[in-house]
Amino acid sequence: MPMTNPQRIQERLAQNSWGLLGNQGHVLGIDLGGYGLRVALVQLQNHTYLSTHADIQRQDPRDILDDSLALARRLLAESGAAPNHLVRVGVGIGAPVDPHRGTVLRSVRMEGWENFSLKDYFEQAFDAVTLVDNDANLIALSEATFGVGCGCQHLFYLHLSSGVGGGMVLDGRLYHGANGIAGEIGHAVVEPGTGSSSLLMTLEERASISGLLRRAGELGLETTNLNDIFGHHPVARQVVQEVTTLLAMRIAHVVALLDPQMVVLGGIVVRIGGEAFVQAIADQVSAYIAPPLNRPVQVVPAALSTDSIAIGALALALESLCD
User: Fold this and answer.
1) What local confidence, expressed as pLDDT, does residue 295 receive?
2) Reported confidence tier of residue 83, pLDDT bands at 50, 70, 90
3) 184 and 74 in one domain?
């Protein structure tokens, strides 16, 4: 029987490999809106893991933050954790961030977050060092630390949802690149403009939810339901075949560039597409790598599901204990 998230996390915590501070106090992980508000808590001494979640009831950033803070404080109280025993806080959000300053760079799916310092907000609330990163990076770290890639030193994560993003763990640490945008593979152009159109087509415009639905419409299948894309209609099958080939080619490029041990696929597109979709992509990847570099690489679905961003925020906070 597959392990649950608490079992995965508690087993990994028992290895206790997070430096001198890794055996005392509590660490908090907060997800600001990936799938509602989600909070995860680890007690370092006893290796216990607790989590909770709530729907987003209000849309103003300050209200969302206040609600997440109340949710976190409630979880701390229920666990019996004293606020002064909180040693680190990790925070994730579905937006580009400056991980060094802990600020949101711009709003993508949620309005009003530009230049907001999540680091300052939570450090003032908890008086604990706070680390911030985007959702795809944190899912990559969560899968490498606690999930399907547990123990992998080199892992690439590809997120297929309302957008297309990515994150990479290299030498056991998140890699951000020179400007903090490493992994943003969704913004790479995959098709030049053709005919009368000069517009460039990005991976996100082809492989996101809206991209898949739009392509189906172009071929004659009008639907707003992503489940229809993975149905038995001939157009749906063509759309899936096209995107499978496209993703396999891009993953092959990632493999040639980064040489990861594992490529993990996640997001709602992958969850609805299921194992058959992931396997179809995996089966094609090696076909797009020339023989001198060709080698087996695991292409697998993510394991941690809707808690993955909060768990990744925990992993980010735990990782900082070693610094």
Assistant:
1) 78
2) confident
3) no
173 vs 6: which has the higher pLDDT: 173
> What is the β-pairing status of strands 86-93 and 97-98?
unpaired
Contact 270, 160 (CB under 8 A): yes
Q: How much of the chain is in helix, strand and coil states, percent to nearest 5?
A: 40, 20, 35
- The tokens describing 183, both together, are 């992994």
On the 0-12 / 13-18 / 19+ scale of CB atoms within 10 A, 132 is: buried
Q: Are 44 and 23 in contact (CB under 8 A)?
A: yes
Are 62 and 167 contained in the same domain?
no
- 138 and 164 co-located in one domain: no
CB 138, CB 127: distance < 8 Å: no
Interval 60-71 mean pLDDT: 94
Q: Return the CATH number at 95.
A: 3.30.420.40
pLDDT reading at 145 higher than 90: yes
For 24-55, b/e burial (b = at least 16 CB within 10 A) is ebbbbbbbbbbbbbbbbbbbbeebebbbebee
Round to whole Å and give the CA distance between 246 and 238: 12
State the residue range of the domain holding 266.
155-302
Residues 244-256 as b/e (b if ≥16 CB within 10 A, e otherwise) read bebbbbbbbebbe
Residue 133 phi, psi (nearest 5) = -155, 170
Based on the domain organization, do 116 and 244 belong to the same domain?
A: no
Residue 193's pLDDT band (cuts 50, 70, 90)? low
Confirm whether pTM is higher than 0.85. yes
269 and 312 together in one domain? no
Q: Let me know whether 194 and 269 are in one domain.
A: yes
- Same-domain status, 14 and 48: yes
**CA quadruple 90, 94, 99, 101: dihedral sign:** negative
Q: How many domains does the chain have?
A: 2
